[in-house]
Design goal:
8 strands, alpha+beta, Immunoglobulin-like, elongated
Length: 193
């Protein structure tokens, strides 16, 4: 009587080496994939992850007259990673991918609505900085040297002491107000005919 292995060996053995080689390759791919995943997961807690945003806000104080309410540019940074992060500076980039960019450093005066730099953010902590909106928008008009820069290319950049940069596009309402102010300043500069 023939055994099962005898039948496999005595039959056409052409597929057996192919199956063995395929199984070896699949095991090797699985091993490499597992090693890469473990390296990624081991490094994940050390990555700096920030959620960054900028937009127009109205600040008001309860019990205060309406004249005390003011519009501000609010910059918001939240640490969504596991690592403690030191925010060292905030800046802006203006310009597209195919044009030269202009870089601006944002000077923020520490106050009740703004933290000083560097600012430490532990896991899950959030920090905001507020800048009076109208003076900030007016200053952008002074820096606009040529019409090649479009306000829709403006990006907020947050710098950390680890050497990482985190970018965000400001909210559309802020970009629209900036565009309107820049267009008004361009019209004022052009001589009337």
């Amino acid at each position: 009587m023939l055994s099962h292995t005898t039948i496999l060996v005595s039959g056409d053995p052409g597929w057996l080496p192919v199956a063995t080689a395929l199984a070896t390759w699949l095991a090797a791919i699985g091993t490499v994939g597992t090693a890469l995943m473990s390296i990624y997961l081991a490094r994940e807690p050390y990555r700096v992850k920030l959620r960054v945003g900028a937009g127009k806000r109205l600040t008001f104080y309860m019990g205060e007259p309406v004249e005390r309410h003011r519009e501000v540019l609010m910059i918001d940074v939240t640490n969504i990673g596991l690592r403690t992060v030191n925010v060292s500076a905030i800046g802006w980039e203006l310009g597209g991918r195919f044009r030269s960019k202009k870089y601006f450093y944002q000077v923020i005066t520490p106050g009740p609505d703004s933290a000083p730099f560097p600012c430490t953010l532990n896991q899950g902590e959030r920090q905001t900085w507020s800048i009076p909106l109208q003076p900030w928008i007016e200053r952008w008009g002074e820096h606009k040297e040529s019409p090649q820069y479009d306000a829709s290319t403006l990006r907020l950049a947050v710098f950390t002491t680890y050497g990482t940069k985190h970018y965000a596009t400001p909210e559309q309402a802020l970009i629209d107000q900036l565009k309107q102010d820049l267009e008004r300043k361009v019209q004022q500069r052009e001589p009337s005919v």
